[in-house]
Amino acid sequence: MIRRAKLTAKTYATVDELIRLGGIAVEDAQDESRRLGVPNVYSINGRLYYETPSGELSSEDPYREKQSATEPRDATERRS
Question: Where is this chain compositionally biased, Basic and acidic residues type (predicted)?
């Protein structure tokens, strides 16, 4: 039998606070991306969805006709 350490109420409270702060940070980052016109990208069931300016989700990559956001701009930026 595997014994698991019991967590104290203080530990649960700390974890709860960290999760709460993480959620606030994510919301702030998403708001900043919207303000800057950068689409938020979500992975849902292994598929990528991009948030449109209207707030809807689309599977259409807004960078498809442009350079991909994950591609280096030129050979000097490539890392080995």
Answer: 61-80
